[in-house]
Write a structure and sequence with these properties.
- Keywords: Aminopeptidase, Hydrolase, Metal-binding, Protease.
- This protein is an alpha+beta fold and 606 residues long.
- Helix content is 34%, strand content 22%.
Length: 606
């Protein structure tokens, strides 16, 4: 039996177990989101239930199972991956777009008979989702149960809670007491006496702590209850060393068992005014709040505060970019010298690049699983090479022809990096160079933007798409996401995407770091994405207000062998030459030998 058949058979058996529990509990359908009690993007193993049940390893999907049907809802980034990984499982790939009426809720409302029950674990369901589900399913005459975790009953070998220790982030330039003081000031403005926080990056940022409970992210599982005279941190036993516990207590933060968070909410006294972020708290935790407590809904103050990097944090980020750029130079120098001389696969690329990053000062881990995608594989934006399925880039004696896309990043104590480069393997075709240059023009267009402070970040997305739109081309993902300070590689509340909520929470402010990553994908042929991280910084003040511009933080040459100079304007050529001059100046002190030679060669002006 092949690997795909084995995976499909395993998923069939697990879906059968789910259905057995459903029948015993009188449930017509179970809804399994990709989520945990903190509404995280990347999940600890204990909450990878959707992956366990379906076998699909992508970072975002929703599984729905009924007695006769099973479907996995995925967007365009994952269509091909889902088709491959669901083969033989009996689970259908449900391909979603931005069109209305395509959500799992829409399907459940239309297909579950009136009077029947849909079960979802309220402990991992976002409050906003729960409200929408209750309204939509009730209108269809369907009962929603959020107090029943069908998955947990079927998943008998579920992993335990992670136990990695927590440590202080020594490079945090603002003390935890000052951060908590600022949060309490915002609470007073909103009329709140208490504030409950579940999102892991908010908790880590506020407490100046980091951990290793989530792969690739320096986070730890915890909830935080901020009170007028202190704060309670709900965290696993033994995760905080004694010296660090003493330091936290000296700053007014006491430690409590992780599983007591809901009980603490339930014990709040009548008259308490509790601030919660409805987008960042689960239905289960919200349900624990007693009726006598007034709930104030608003954005977590820390979510906005941590997105606005201080000057000191930006200085640390620049150091991280230099270390990361040096690692990339060493890798690409090896890669170009090894072509045609030694076997290179997508896995080799991942291994060699990860090894170069690991040599750099301050490196902690990768910031996400590296995407090394050759030719047609790069047309899948979230492709991941595996031992069982990967492409060979080149073998000794070969003269290959193609494009290699590498999307990668690192977690350094000084910052989080995320960068994508595409390089030619052999001689690129005119069509490949045209595609690459159009994507480059979009990236440059956004990089050079100047805009009023407070501009809603989704509105800037179109700047990167304009050169592609002019040619009748587009890409199916957002142009950029926020990035944290040795935190989440995907950080809110801002980002460049037409699907984001266009409200005050996404207003661009100085210090916000965002990825700039337009792309173009030719299914079955190649994919192109060019990505830098950019920071919003003050530009100038005019009679029309304060204006911002972007500082490009990422430091790695953009391969000019793929550039069709005839398609670039003089200003675009000047931008690229100036960028390469900066890359050369900043990285030279960190590289030597072949890496330095490669850097000098690839930063020659056009």
């Amino acid at each position: 039996m092949g690997q795909g058949q084995t995976q499909g058979a395993a998923a069939r058996e697990r879906i059968a177990r789910l259905r057995q529990v459903m029948r015993a509990r009188g449930v017509a359908a179970v809804w399994v989101p990709t989520s945990d009690p903190h509404l995280s993007t990347y999940l600890p193993a204990r909450w990878k239930g959707r992956e366990w049940a379906s076998g699909f390893t992508g970072s975002l999907a929703t599984l729905v199972v009924t007695e006769d049907d099973a479907g996995l809802w995925v967007d365009s980034r994952y269509w091909d991956q889902a088709d491959a990984q669901l083969m033989g499982s009996g689970i259908a790939t449900v391909r979603t777009t931005n069109a209305p009426g395509q959500s799992p809720l829409d399907w459940l409302a239309a297909n579950v008979p009136q009077g029947q029950t849909v079960a979802v674990d309220g402990a991992v369901l976002g409050l906003g989702q729960a409200r929408q589900a209750a309204s939509q399913l009730s209108a269809a005459g369907v009962v929603l149960r959020t107090d029943l975790d069908v998955l947990a009953e079927a998943w008998t070998d579920r992993p335990p809670l992670p136990a990695a220790p927590v440590f202080a982030h020594a490079l945090s330039p603002v003390s935890r007491t000052d951060k908590l003081r600022a949060v309490r000031a915002e609470m007073r403005v909103l009329g709140a006496t208490h504030h409950f926080i579940s999102t892991l990056d908010d908790v880590a940022w506020l407490t100046n702590l980091r951990g290793a409970d989530v792969e690739h992210l320096p986070l730890f599982l915890a909830h935080l209850l901020v009170e007028p005279g202190g704060a309670r941190l709900f965290i696993g036993e033994g995760k905080v060393p004694d010296a660090l516990r003493a330091a936290l207590e000296a700053d007014g933060i006491t430690l409590h068992p992780y599983d007591e968070a809901a009980r603490a909410l339930g014990a709040l006294q009548e008259g308490t005014r509790l601030l919660v972020d409805p987008r960042r708290i689960t239905h289960g935790l919200r349900q624990a709040v007693p009726r006598g407590v007034t709930v104030v809904e608003g954005l977590n103050p820390s979510t906005v505060a941590k997105s606005r990097k201080t000057d000191a944090e930006l200085a640390h980020f620049r150091d991280a970019m230099e270390q990361d750029g040096a690692a990339l130079c060493a890798f690409f120098a090896w890669f170009e010298s090894a072509l045609g001389r030694e076997p290179i696969t997508e896995l080799t690329v991942d291994e060699r690049l990860s090894a170069e990053r690991a040599k750099r000062p301050g490196f902690v881990s990768l910031s996400f699983s590296t995407i090394a995608a050759y030719n047609a594989n790069a047309a899948m934006p979230h492709y991941r090479a595996t031992r069982d399925s990967h492409a060979t880039v080149c073998l000794p004696g070969q003269t290959p022809q193609g494009l290699l896309l590498i999307d990668s990043g690192g977690q350094y104590t000084s910052g989080t990096t995320d960068i994508t480069r595409v390089v030619p393997v052999g001689e690129p075709t005119p069509e490949q160079r045209r595609d690459f240059t159009l994507v480059l023009r979009g990236m440059i267009n956004l990089s050079r933007a100047r805009f009023p402070r407070g501009t809603r970040s989704p509105n800037l997305d179109a700047l990167a798409r304009a050169p592609l739109w002019a040619e009748g081309l587009d890409y199916g993902h957002g142009t950029g996401h926020g990035v944290g300070f040795f935190l989440n590689v995907h950080e809110g509340p801002h980002g460049f995407s037409p699907t984001m909520l266009n409200d005050l929470t996404t207003a661009m402010e100085p210090g916000m770091i965002t990825s700039n990553e337009p792309g173009l994908y030719r299914p079955g042929r190649w994919g192109i994405r060019i990505e830098n991280l950019i920071a919003a910084v003050p530009d100038r003040k005019t009679e029309f207000g304060d204006f911002l511009r972007f500082e490009t933080l990422s430091l790695c040459p953009i391969d000019t062998r793929l550039v069709d100079v005839a398609l670039l304007s003089r200003d675009e050529v000047d931008w690229l030459n100036a960028y390469h001059a900066t890359v050369r100046e900043r990285l030279q002190p960190h590289v030597q030998g072949p890496a330095r030679d490669w850097l000098l060669q690839r930063t020659q002006p056009l």
